[in-house]
Amino acid sequence: MTGGALAVTAPGHVTRARQLASRAARDAGLPDPDVERVVLATTELATNLVKYATDGLLAVMPTEGRLDVVATDRGPGIEHVSRSMRDGFSTTGTLGVGLGGIRRMADEFDIFSRYGEGTTVLARWHGAVEEAPWGSGLRIGAVLRAAPGETTCGDDWVAAHADGVVTVVLSDGLGHGPAAAEASRSVTAHVRARPEASPSELLAAMDADMGPRRGATVAIAQFHTARSTVSFCGVGNSTVRLVRGDGTHEALVSTPGIVGRRQRSGRRSSPLVRPWDGRGLLVMHTDGVSERWTPADRTDVLAHDPATVAGWLLGTYGRHRDDSGVVVVSGSGTT
């Protein structure tokens, strides 16, 4: 599906953001009235980024059954978020114009802001079916951004489900551009085809099928609703953190190597398995996002919609020199 992210720091970027949102909304199959609302809301968000924000970024992320528009920045933040939602509210130096209108236009709306640090806004529209295609009470949000100068992102993700199992994969194709994107598409195709296969089986199939492609680093999380567990396998340098409902957290470590090179030694024969109680959060991101953040310091933002969390992480910790991707999964009890 059409989508992507772009820097919004100058008036000309507003037009690009509006065009991106319009294409994505139509490709997602939204009806014409919703497309108009998507375009209006995106224009307002992008205009606010230009007027008030620092390092503004706008992401348009279609998935099956919905469209997310996420605006994020690195400052200056909103001092009084509740006031900013009032019609006509505007204070120089804050991102506040039109947020109340955006909330009314969207099917779902979320906002996180730290005064002096930055703001992330999520506006979401549903297609004909409001339930996420992966079901099972999970909520999943993601944001991808191509490397500077590229129009295609080499990072990709997908969530697919079958027989009470939801499998989520994040892939980082080596390098960037179309060749990296092709490698990641090969990874996600395996999950779409066999979401019920174990993470170890999927990695082995991806490794054998990469062929002449560049290869990729891959992180796979598989949620078993009946068992209340999440299983994880990864190869490469993706960052994966499991935040439990009690606030404790754990880094889930991948095996060194590259999927597609078939040269990995010491490959884990079975995935890591951890409890998943529906109040937890799983965060996965590629090396285009710095790992220098800790869940303990960011409990306020982690309580928000997964797409808001993903957008905030990319906007705050994105390196801005490589493809970058963030996927966040929460249980129904998280938000």
TrEMBL record:
**Which SUPFAM superfamilies does the protein's record reference?**
ATPase domain of HSP90 chaperone/DNA topoisomerase II/histidine kinase (SSF55874), PP2C-like (SSF81606)
Transferase recorded as keyword: yes
What range does the record give for the signal peptide?
none
Ranges for domain PPM-type phosphatase come to 138-331
MF term (GO), any = kinase activity
UniProt keyword list: Kinase, Transferase
Matching Pfam families: HATPase_c_2 (PF13581), SpoIIE (PF07228)
User: Which PANTHER family does this one have?
Assistant: PHOSPHOSERINE PHOSPHATASE RSBX
- The protein depicted here goes by the name Anti-sigma regulatory factor (Ser/Thr protein kinase)
